[in-house]
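Researcher: Good morning. I'm working through a list of sequences from a screen, and I'd like to move beyond sequence-only analysis. For each chain I'm collecting a predicted structure so we can compare shapes side by side. This is the next one on the list. No need for commentary yet; just the structure.
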Amino acid sequence: MSEWEDFEKACTSYLNEQFGKYAKFTHKGGSDSTVSDIFVETYNDSFYIDAKLLPSQCGQFVLFPDTVKKSFQYSDNNANLIDEYAEKIIDNMNKNFDLFYNAGTAGKDVIMADGQEVFSKWIIKMYKAKNTRFFITNGYNIIPVDRMLEFFEISATYRIKRSGTSSVGKNKISLVRDYV
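Model: Good morning. Structure tokens for this chain:
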């Protein structure tokens, strides 16, 4: 088991030990990033907490380079619809197309004057869409998703992903099974 998986389970145990009188905490994490790590059920509410063993990744979206137009296109297969924050990131990358097009697997940092704000707003919106209200981090610090910019330094990197994946995504299993 990897260090981040151990951390998710340890956070779930910690939350149950500390706050089990008020809520039930269930580990849901793993490699499926479409669902946050810890499901919280209270008497009258339910939501998620995402465990972040720092430093940590906090989301991604796929872009396809169009070498004729020298621009990046947002993939229709992204989990989230394109929004104003993703558009700002893409606009910045389009102005520097050649730099990002040749990023390779090591990647290139996305540098923007208002980058911290744009990146954090994209992350907050993405996590809110998954009904995630808090992060739990190293030292079991619990941080409201809305206040992440106060506690984290946020950066973005564009990189070329190696082709293939280690496992079939949960929402594609039946499709693959039917094909095979």
